[in-house]
Amino acid sequence: MNAASAIFGLQVMTNLLIWALVARWYVAPRLARLSVRDALTPLLLLQASRVIGLVFIVDAVTDPALPRPLALTAALGDTLTAVLALIALALLRRGLAGWRVTAWAMTVVGLVDLMVVAGWGIAIGFPNYELGAAWFIPTVLGPIMIVGHVLVIRVLMRRDSLSAASETPTASNAS
Q1: Handedness of CA 135, 111, 70, 10 (dihedral sign)
Q2: What does the DSSP assignment read for 68-130?
Q3: CA-to-CA distance for 27 and 19, rounded, in angstroms?
Q4: Helix or strand or coil: residue 158?
Q5: Closest by alpha carbon to 103, among 158, 168, 31, 41?
């Protein structure tokens, strides 16, 4: 293992630990006090920001030698996750059917994307490519997104999520 790979791995694992602790100590306790609708809203907004993964197909930002299939897979997986998050959010906030299935689809697609791209990245020595500022996507944002998906799963599995009262917007909070 070379220095770039060691530093990259250390940064990913450290940020995963940090964001898992932030989620456990600060975020999860607050989300537990909210309705499913109100707890999922910020988590879906977080995942909607994954359009940033499109940067991997911008040659002026990342190494043109980065294998194009990997760059496309990362960009498209992130974008599909973001689109599903926005659809789930729109359905959820309007109290329309299908929000739960879409939220589950978003988190499955998002986690599979992260696992596939991470495995592929390890296989090709991803940290050895010129990544510029895009280095921060897998080392900082990737761990945040993983923790975000775990929180989405926790909210979707809550017992109170079966209650229509916690899922349907009221007239006062329908926006």
Answers
A1: positive
A2: HHHHHHHHHHHHHHHHHHHHHHHHHHHT-TTHHHHHHHHHHHHHHHHHHHHHHHHHHTGGGS-
A3: 10
A4: coil
A5: 41
Instruction: Please state, in angstroms and rounded to a whole number, the distance separating the CA atoms of residues 147 and 134.
Output: 20
Distance separating alpha carbons of residues 18 and 149, to the nearest angstrom: 15
- Which amino acid, residue 32? A
**Scanning the structure block, which residue is given the tokens 């496309």?**
72
Residue with tokens 């059917």: 97
Report the C-alpha gap between 167 and 162 in whole angstroms.
8
Model pLDDT for residues 102-153, shown as the tens digit of each residue: 999 999 999 999 999 999 999 999 999 999 999 999 999 999 999 999 999 9
CA angle 17, 140, 100 (to 5 degrees): 80
